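#help-structures
NK: newbie question, is this the right format to request a structure? protein is Diaminopimelate decarboxylase
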Amino acid sequence: MFLHGTSRINDANHLEIGGCDVTELKAEYGTPLYIVDEQLVRRRCREYMEAFTASGLGFQVAYASKAFSVMAMCRLADEEGLSLDVVSDGELYTALQAGFPAERIHFHGNNKTPDEIEMAIDAGIGCFVADNLVELHMLQAIALRKEVTVNILLRVTPGVEAHAHHAYASTGQTDSKFGFDIGNGAAQEAVKLASAQSNLQLLGVHSHIGSQIFETEGFELAVERIAEFTRKVKEELGVEFPVVNLGGGFGIRYVEGDTPLQVSEYVAAITGAVKKHFTGISEKLPQIWVEPGRSIVGDAGTTLYTVGTNKEIPGVRKYVAVDGGMTDNPRPALYESKYEALLANRAAEPNEETVSIAGKCCESGDMLIWDVELPKVESGDLLAVACTGAYNYSMASNYNRIRRPAVVFVQNGQSDLVVRRESHQDIIANDIIPARIAKQTVAK
Ligand code: LLP
């Protein structure tokens, strides 16, 4: 397994993250356990902030909280000076409860409800990213009733099909549930409508072309298309865009063979393309906003499991089962995502066998890794799966009524619990047995 950030093998041949020996983390918190390398998260935040500062452009780096939305992470993003992208009342609530400054929160989503819009306006968020005509009318009506002006960006699809890791993660093409298409004229109509609304302040446009992208070409093409659109809108409608938001999607290394760029390379490509294509359109270059999620938290996360049973099918394969699975990491089942693993309590031992890592759900699709080389694995061993910081805890479920794991932040030899493990009580907390079918003591 590739060692990311502060991960290393210590003298006891144990995996250590943030100066914490994972066997001690297991003893203290149990497994499965999400371990977040705080220093690496901060480093990623700073890489974005420093690269944009170096570009000389105005900017905001909004952490896409869908990747990992918990209060401690919102605090950390705030401390590092990032803004925040939320897509639901739940993510908004999490951010507000964590004390994240509302004016740096951007609200996304293709189906914001009236209640969500009201909640966000009442909280005083910085900006809505408006996705469709129905929403534009709703935003105007609610803002008018509340006698406020709300900032909006219009989400547009620039017709760019980025090389995302899975078709479900491509969003910049014309046939997408998100946004107004530039190519078919819908985006220009939306600009006309939005700029005519008394209670909407149109700041500019937003595009997100996909996720887990390893090249800069898609981003550069999106910038070029948006610049052409900006020029046209200025000429034909007299509307200017002080802000251009280019979304997220910057790739990370999950397994050998993945070839992401450095954060600074993505940022240099984007800011370079902005300078090239936007110069001369308006007096000032637009502010550039981005929304990285995965590339902030992805490689900082490791999931620690305890190995339980195994099953060897002679001539076929050996299954090794761990105490989690698709409930804490649904990505292999959903997207056929690949991961690397390490036997974390005997990390320096040579690999001896090829095994496949199964989860504990009652479903054959619940596999975490097919065919991974490991030392001889025994029950009770600890297995670490790397790069689980993004879209793992945030996509975890209680399928089979399995309790969601705890999350710890580790740094400088210290571990801090940031999400406690769910209890059995949590599992039934929302259940109600109607009196009609409640267990009765039947008189015989
Ligand atoms: N901005 C918008 C509007 C987005 O839709 C997304 C991700 C992001 C930013 C952040 O993208 P990132 O930098 O994290 O790639 N569950 C999938 C990923 C879905 C991404 C959805 N939108 C996965 O596990 O790969």
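mod (FA): yep, format's fine, and the tokens are attached above. The CA atoms of residues 9 and 298 lie 20 Å apart.
NK: thank you!
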